[in-house]
Design a protein that fits this description.
It is an enzyme of class 2 (transferase). With 242 residues, the protein is of the alpha+beta class. The structure holds adenosine-5'-diphosphate and magnesium ion (MG).
Length: 242
């Protein structure tokens, strides 16, 4: 990882994944002007998909959710550069890539100081041809093996000691080969030690949240999800090598 620092901003980047223009890479207008916008997706804000010289990428500006987010949309309290949302997600993704979990490779992250606050952005590898589980399950059911592979990925995430505090089915993608990808690691973190007694607690609460998300989307948009049967398959993947 390389770092570019000025008095107002810091950029962290992987020099093997972005070789120039890293300072402009966080500006959607830069990509628009060059005709290199591939598309976009709506979440809390807009994620822009852009074609860098090396790989297709997803550009996200950090935005708050909830009521507080309506007032202070994209400013976060500054403590230190290494405690910014973008740096923390960049590092976590690097850790997960090393651990062999299917997550987008982090390309670059930026934090910009605004008086007492900061704003943040991140550029990650775009998962080509991927859709999130909510979208997919609205049109088709999934094979038991796919549920198993979702369980396997979550298990790998947990074996890497990472707590995904927003593990819902919007944040699980499948590509054209049904390969499972986990995304959206804002505010997620590494649990301190594998020796801690609270190991079971956080892992279980990730899984509980995911289960609630399946039920929620079933009510909301009638996803084609087979409740117990499909959940058991997912858990069988999660518990595979026990
Ligand atoms: N690296 C990526 N590759 C492909 N699609 C992505 C990627 N990152 C985000 N997306 C798409 O953008 C949506 C929103 O991104 P996400 O990181 O979940 O942010 P948020 O939920 O905070 O808005 C996702 O549901 C997904 O459809
Ligand atoms: Mg999300």
């Amino acid at each position: 990882m390389k770092t570019l620092k000025s008095y107002k901003h810091v950029i962290w980047f992987d020099e093997t994944l972005i070789d120039h223009c890293v300072e402009q890479a966080f500006d959607p207008d830069y990509w628009h002007a060059q005709n290199k916008v591939l598309g976009s997706a709506e979440g809390r804000g807009t994620t822009w998909f852009v074609q860098t010289d090396i790989l297709p990428a997803a550009l996200r500006h950090y935005k708050r959710g909830g009521l507080f987010g309506k007032l202070i949309k994209d400013h976060y309290w500054f403590i230190q550069w290494h405690k910014t949302r973008s740096f923390e997600e960049f590092q976590l993704l690097q850790h997960l890539v090393k651990a062999g979990v299917n997550v987008p490779k982090p390309i670059a992250a930026r934090a910009v100081k605004r008086t007492l606050c900061y704003q943040a952005d991140i550029l990650t590898q775009k998962i080509e041809g991927a859709q999130d589980l909510v979208t997919i399950l609205q049109s088709r059911t999934l094979e038991p093996e796919v549920y198993q592979s979702i369980g396997v990925q979550i298990r790998q995430l947990h074996d890497a000691n990472v707590n995904h505090t927003d593990l819902n089915i919007h944040n699980i993608l499948l590509d054209r080969d049904n390969k499972v990808w986990l995304i959206d690691f804002d505010k997620c973190y590494r649990e301190r030690s594998e020796m801690e007694i609270n190991q079971v607690g956080w892992k279980k609460s990730n899984l509980d949240r995911l289960l609630r998300s399946f039920y929620k989307e079933k009510r909301k948009v009638s996803i084609k999800w087979g409740e117990h049967r499909d959940w058991e398959m997912l858990l069988s993947g999660y518990n595979k090598n026990l």
